[in-house]
Amino acid sequence: MATETMLRFVERQQAYPAKREAEIRAEDFREIADRYAVEGAEEQAARCSQCGVPYCSVHCPLHNHIPDWLRLTAEGRLREAYELSNATSSMPEICGRICPQDRLCEGNCVIEFSGHGAVTIGSVEKFITDTAWDKGWVEPLVPGRPTGQSVGIIGAGPAGLTAAEQLRAAGHDVHVYDRYDRAGGLLTYGIPGFKLEKPVVERRVARLEAGGILFHRGFAVGRDASLAELRARHDGILIATGVYKARAIDVDGHDRAGVVAALDYLTASNRKGFGDAVPAFDDGSLDAAGKDVVVIGGGDTAMDCVRTAVRQGAKSVKCLYRRDRANMPGSVREVANAEEEGVEFVWLTAPAAFEGDAAVTNVRAHGMRLGAPDASGRRAPERDPGGEHEHSADLVIKALGFDAEDLPRLFAAPELGVTRWGTVLVDAKTMMTSLDGVFAAGDIVRGASLVVWAIRDGRDVAAAMHRYLRAKAATGERKAA
Questions:
Q1: Model confidence over 463-474: pLDDT tens digits?
Q2: pLDDT per position as a tens digit, 133-146
Q3: Residue 107 predicted with pLDDT over 70
Q4: What is the pTM of this model?
Q5: Is 207's pLDDT higher than 50?
Q6: What average pLDDT does the structure give for the chain?
Q7: Measured distance CA(397)–CA(247) in Å, rounded
Q8: Which band of pLDDT confidence, cut at 50, 70 and 90, is reported for residue 163?
Q9: Separation of CA 178 from chain center
Q10: Exposed, middle or buried, 177 (CB in 10 Å: 0-12/13-18/19+)?
């Protein structure tokens, strides 16, 4: 049956779920495309070639069993497809929405190489688990046999939530500490609703709470308790804070009013979507309405910013990036979505100064050109003499990436080892830090990266912590939660 059902990539064209018209979708923060109907998902899944070496799985950080659940979908066995997808991923419907599939699974699809267009893996993945939620197939989190041990997790982003689920299923008491008033980290406050609607995140968190995981919201380690105090409460600690410190830009006027950090801007927008009071938005500081907006950067965060500014009613939106389109780190699809919505991209451009009196009114920029390859193999941008130009700007958003905060200082733990980049130093095998029983995972270890890598790290560190806790129990050491 599988042979008859699959290998339809020649007779069936690649088709993604239809996007709403750009003019319409730019008026709200809903996701821009609906999911497939059942027939559409089955037809697209049936295009899979079931190749002997599935490069889609190889290039997925979670090594999802992609060809297998595509086959099950094509055969109409959606519940089995969901169970297989859920076996390797803690948040498949979230990855289906926000993973850069064009750089991972779909970008390495064998039929993409043959010129027939990749299987629409991300859209099918999203469809499978959304269907599972709708039909009640997503089972509650059932705690394992109680171990009498407790774990404290610092950070409620994708790495922390994934580890919490795995450790609770292993029977440990799990406490999650997060400085925000909602769990989810960047899933909640950093990624706009047009890519990830917030109820999708909230239902995941609600499932974890129903499974007995305790969330301590609005809890800042270093303010409400030191790392040492948390270590005294729990048998094991996981640091999964992510990286939130905006990278600086060393040009004149970088601290001028109207020049803001991307995460501040996106968090304010998402909070308004929740109905929160956001003074910095309400006074216009973090609202793009009626403004000429310039975003500096070329990654996915920059794409989130330009597309948010469009939805807030900006007068104009430009994205300045120092390399060309071919060397842009952000998702090709996100660039296309932004262009459809009216964003102007100014390639080979870097800011020279943010000018104005009381507040920014203008960006003076250098023209750039691509020189010799750097250590990463990418051609390094260099200034193109005589290429200066200017752009009107009432709001400049810096989207240059994120660095680690000074956790040894914030956590009152100077003995916590960090790298020269400020990320937490861990043993490659055990994922333990320089402190016994304290582990770290996600972006705070690897630097700013993808959500799918955070999920992978969360699963790996949970397994490492469980081994540690079992060994600790064997010696008779344990603390009360």
A1: 999 999 999 999
A2: 999 999 999 999 99
A3: yes
A4: 0.94
A5: yes
A6: 95
A7: 12
A8: very high
A9: 17
A10: buried
Q: Return all residues near 64 (Cβ < 8 A) that are at least 6 apart.
A: 57, 85, 88, 89, 92, 105, 125
Say if CB 178 and CB 155 are below 8 A apart.
yes
| φ/ψ bin of 396: left (φ > 0), alpha (ψ from -120 to 50), beta (otherwise) | beta
248: phi then psi, degrees, rounded to nearest 5 = -80, 155
Residue 96, H or E segment: helix 92-98
CB 248 within 8 A of CB 438: no
Per the CB < 8 A criterion, the answer to whether 179 and 220 are in contact is yes
Task: Give the residue-averaged pLDDT of 219-239.
Answer: 97
Three-state DSSP at 314 gives: coil
The structure tokens listed for 413 are 């733990």
Residue 336, exposed/middle/buried by CB under 10 A (0-12, 13-18, 19+)? exposed
Give the span between the Cα atoms of 410 and 455, in whole angstroms.
25
Are 168 and 253 contacting, i.e. CB atoms less than 8 angstroms apart?
no
Give the residue carrying structure tokens 């630097």: 447
Query: What is the C-alpha to C-alpha distance for residues 311 and 31, in angstroms, rounded to an integer?
Result: 12
Helix, strand, coil share (%) of the chain residues, nearest 5: 35, 20, 45
Tokens of 210: 């129903």
